[in-house]
Amino acid sequence: MLYEPVLILNANFEPLNVCPTRRAITLIVVGKAKMVLNGRGYIHTINQAYPRPSVIRLEAMIKHPRPQLRVNRREILRRDEYTCQYCGKRDVWMTIDHILPRRLGGEYSWENLVTACPRCNHCKGGRTLQQANMSLLHQPFTPSPSAKYRFRQYLKNNHEWGQFLEGW
């Protein structure tokens, strides 16, 4: 209950981050944020009842650079939605495979890395797709760092956030 995710918006309603409910209530009580959306009820203490926020907005504008997605294991798995790009198997325990192996000049880039199950990664080994007689289910791409992409893992359980993530 105190650790449910809360969307933090900048003063201009730009999505910034996600924090636990406990931190969001602290920001509201101290006066650094205001609640924008409450759809979760209340937290009752001995003296008072505090609304459990779903979305909060900071009072002061925070300057921050545009988010850039780095090429790393976590982002590759997120982009491919934990699905093997060779056989279509979905699992939490996945590996990362270079389409063109590094020993043959393959780069560490969005277009050369895909999610693979351990079995398919072992079958492909250090060969190219043609040599291994394998094909990709989806062509790899560089994802856009939009708010909808960055926070999509939370949208399943927090449908009300959708209106705040559009256009960012």
Mean pLDDT, nearest integer?
87
**Helix coverage percent:** 10-25%
Strand-pairing-aware structural class: alpha+beta
The largest sheet has its strands arranged as 2-1-4-3
Report the β-strand fraction as a percent range: 15-25%
Radius of gyration over C-alpha positions, nearest whole angstrom:
21 Å
Low-confidence stretches: none
Number of helices: 7
The coarse silhouette is elongated
DSSP summary, beta strand count? 6
Characterize the largest beta sheet: strand count, sense, and whether it forms a barrel. Answer: 4 strands, mixed
N to C succession of SSEs: EEHEEHEEHHHHH
What is the multimeric organization of the chains shown? single chain
Distance between the termini: 28 Å
Give an account of the 3D structure.
With 168 residues, this protein is an alpha+beta fold. Helix content is 24%, strand content 24%. It contains seven helices and six strands, in the order E-E-H-E-E-H-E-E-H-H-H-H-H. The protein has helices spanning 21-30, 73-79, 118-124, 129-132, 147-150, 152-155, 162-165, and strands at 5-9, 15-20, 33-44, 49-58, 95-98, 113-116. It has a four-stranded mixed sheet. Strand 1 and strand 2 form a beta hairpin. The longest helix has 10 residues, at 21-30.
